[in-house]
Amino acid sequence: MKNILKISILFLFSIFLLTSCSKDDNNDATMKVVLKMNTTSTSTARMTNNLLVFNTGSVIIREIVFDGEKTSGGSVSITHEQISTINLVTGVTSPAVEVIIPIGEYNSVNLGIEIQDENDSPSVIAEGIYTDKDGMETPLKFEFNSGEVFEANATSYTFGADSYAIAEIDFSPAVWFSSITGTMLDNANRVDGVILVNESTNSNIFDIVADKLDDATQAAFN
After folding, report:
1. How many other CB atoms sit within 10 Å of the CB of residue 54?
2. Which domain holds residue 111?
3. Beta strand ranges found along the chain (DSSP E)
4. What confidence score (pLDDT) does residue 34 get?
5. Distance CA 12, CA 110 (A)
6. CB within 8 A of 131, min separation 6: which ones?
7. Is residue 80 part of a domain?
8. CA gyration radius, the chain
9. 100 lies in a domain?
10. Which residue of 79, 83, 174, 182 is surrounded by the most CB atoms within 10 Å?
């Protein structure tokens, strides 16, 4: 049974009823969005007598986009650019991410989170331990660098006083590696004793895992 590394991205909306709060034409106060994360600590893939356990990782985001149609008329489109690193185990986001969204009733809500891809550094890293059939342990590191956009959608949503919304994204390394066999990892190249999987090293494994990452990483807006 696989334990999925599940990252729940919580966008907590709280109203600031201060005289300094901005107002739109409909006298709507603004809401402050704080990005937080909850996650389990491990993700396990079993390969017959072999075992692959992920226990740490990070993802770098660069942009958050919000779009919605207000039922009172007009649309809201917000693009918030900020490079921030999220620890996939602790859920700590550094620096913290904040977005301002006008309150109100919305239709066709879309929230997009774009992964950083501005340089050669990996934007997604997942690390763990591979244990072969003889019980020998080898560190494994997966590196992914792509400007993927993970989207969460809602047909309608009301952002009101004391409300909150949850956009949930599942990062599941065990699912990404589900088509990788123990034999493939046994025969994989080692870099300083580590099974490194990226575009240039063990690329045959990387291509399979990257396709799974794209297909299996899902988002939902609640």
Report:
1. 26
2. 6-221
3. 6-15, 30-39, 43-47, 50-70, 75-87, 93-94, 98-102, 104-115, 124-131, 137-144, 149-159, 165-170, 190-191, 194-197, 218-221
4. 52
5. 16
6. 50, 51, 52, 53, 137, 138
7. yes
8. 20
9. yes
10. 174
Q: Please tell me the pTM assigned to this model.
A: 0.75
Residue pair 2/174 in contact (Cβ under 8 Å)? The answer is: yes
At position 4, the amino acid (one-letter code) is: I
Structure tokens at 196: 């490194």
Tokens of 211: 């396709």
3-state secondary structure of 25: coil
Q: In this predicted model, what pLDDT tens digit does every residue of 50-77 receive, in sequence order? A: 899 888 888 898 998 889 999 988 999 9
Rounded CA gap, 76 and 61, in Å? 22
Q: Which two tokens stand for residue 186?
A: 């046994």
CA-closest candidate to residue 172, choices 112, 88, 49, 85: 88
pLDDT at residue 4 tops 80:
no
Tell me if 1 is assigned to some domain: no
| CA distances (Å), origin 160, targets 29, 34, 127, 152 | 9, 16, 40, 19
Residue 95: is the preceding peptide bond cis (ω within 30°)? yes
Confidence band for 154, pLDDT divided at 50, 70 and 90 = confident
The dihedral built from the CA positions of residue 88, 92, 98 and 102, taken in this order, carries a sign that is: positive
Let me know if residue 216 belongs to a domain. Answer: yes
Does residue 49 have a pLDDT over 50? Answer: yes
Number of domain units in the chain: 1
What are the φ and ψ backbone dihedral angles of 145, each rounded to 5 degrees?
A: -130, 100
